[in-house]
Amino acid sequence: MAMPTKNQKLLAWVDEVVKLCEPEKVYWCDGSQQEYDTLCQQMVASGTFTALNPAKRPGCYLARSHASDVARVEDRTYICTPRREDAGPTNNWRAPEELKTEMRALYKGCMHGRTLYVIPFSMGPIGSPVAKIGVEISDSAYVVVNMRIMTRMGQAALDALGEHGDFIPCLHSVGAPLAKGQKDVAWPCVPDPAKKYIAHFPQDGMIWSFGSGYGGNALLGKKCLALRIASYLARAEGWMAEHMLILKLTSPEQKAYYVGAAFPSACGKTNLAMMQPTLPGWKVECIGDDINWMRIGDDGRLYAVNPENGFFGVAPGTSRSSNPNAMDSITRNTIFSNVALTDDGDVWWEDMGVPAPAHAIDWKGEEWTPAKKDADGKTAKAAHPNARFTAPASQCPVIAAEWENPAGVPIDAFLFGGRRPSTIPLVNQAYSWNHGVFMGAAAGSETTAAALGQAGVLRRDPFAMLPFCGYHMGDYFMHWLSFGLRTNPAKLPKVFFVNWFRKTAEGKWLWPGYGENSRVLRWVCERIEGKGQAVETPIGILPTADAIDVAGTGVTAADMQELLRVDVEGWKKELASIEESYKPYGARLPYALRAEVDALKARLAKA
């Protein structure tokens, strides 16, 4: 059989993996619709997929994972650098050769009885100067079909690689070999979480994953390549790889603004990326909801590309009220994972905005009714809290025309934020680039009980990158700061910190959020233009009390006063918390951030 590529490095690597993993057969993916349909039908026949009602969800499927394999496993995710200190205090480190030896033993014969799929893919539009070619080897058809949605996958990526092009090798196995005659299970994986591995070798530009078939553990183009490996490459090559949405905002005067926003999980990133503005005449379009690759253009500005081809979104909480455009994006050609199956062949999840079905099959494959209780006596969830949908970005009704522009779009503003019920105002503009980096480095969220079992615990997540930076976070902060020297700072995006989650002492939300956030974005655009009513405060530049139009929102003057109040004593405590969060970085914390702390302390002392 003729090989679909003449790239000798790739052919040699595939041959090496075949000898190690010993699959029953090898299949090179071409990315065609026919291939996708065939694999989906094979998974329906094997029990991995359930085809949904074509009258309700044409071209859609439901997968249920093993109960041990429902999310990214951060404690089994490793950054393998020769020196431990280069991985930094926030990453799990293993010595590269030691872990390679350990994992090679696991890979030996791990694909017995299975098909080895060769999955060539491009992160970024094929042929774009910013795109990166990866090749994932996997023994999971679930991975193949999801990678087709999430990346530009198939023969076109091989053609872009050419005979001599370089690629990022990504090796994945579910770790469940089949003996001769052994019946397969619907979701093969390694059930013991302590025996799953997601290993990154930044200096080799290589990813190895073993034991999990789910999400970011297995779809290696996503968090593994597009953030952990890409962030390492970006620092070496002078660009940025960020856990950040990209949106296009158009004013009634038809002026377009491009915004990058980074929030920790559960803070409304996808909702903002696809927001329906409530302000008349304003329009939001989505360029990307999760990952942002940026380079300095010839004009000195930062240009952003979304390297992904689809959305891998959290289903629970997605509804017509929270994100109508996401709901429209998943009406067809979508793979759902760990949601509930209704009796009429549709899907359902908690906070979907429609009444719960009287009966369904839950994410574990068990009978479910709204009265069902779990082992703790609480109402049983029909969908897993991390249940997902994988949908093509092209199906989003507000996808921007520029979303596949190989040159990217010029970023006008960065938003950082988090879920903070007190102290942090609704919106706050940085005084300078260094002050903006300080804001991003201080980002964090207070946990809910559902997240950690203890409510109200502040978790710092600098730039929303803590789980995704492929090297030392102190060096990462320095990389951000360096952009103030790489180009004219006046050409860099203006930086803002937002907080949609302020509450009263009684626990009432002060800001309505969702589409009303467009009112804050309008002020951001006014500030980009050098306009917008504002006042200088110790913590940054805030809107004046009447700068944000709240007509028709129910937000009172007293609410706005509280939303924009500078709580001096609260900020002194915040600063102490920020300084505490710096301690793990030691001498690798940039002096510029310490200087921003000192400057803020001095301003607060005078307030």
Description:
This protein is α+β, with helices and mostly antiparallel strands and 607 residues long. The protein has two domains: 8-60 and 73-237, Phosphoenolpyruvate Carboxykinase, domain 1 (3-Layer(aba) Sandwich); 241-310 and 402-606, Alpha-Beta Complex (Phosphoenolpyruvate Carboxykinase, domain 3). The chain contains 17 helices and 32 strands. The strands form seven sheets. Strands 1, 4, 5, 6, 7, 8, 9, 10 and 11 form a nine-stranded mixed beta sheet that branches. Strands 15-13-14-26-30-27 form a six-stranded mixed beta sheet, sandwiched between helices. It has a five-stranded mixed beta sheet with strand order 2-3-19-24-18. A hairpin with an 8-residue loop joins strand 6 (115-123) and strand 7. Helix 2 (33-46) packs antiparallel against helix 5, helix 11 crosses helix 17 (591-606) and helix 16 packs antiparallel against helix 17. The longest helix has 17 residues, at 221-237. 50% of the residues are buried. Mean pLDDT is 96; it is low at 449-453.
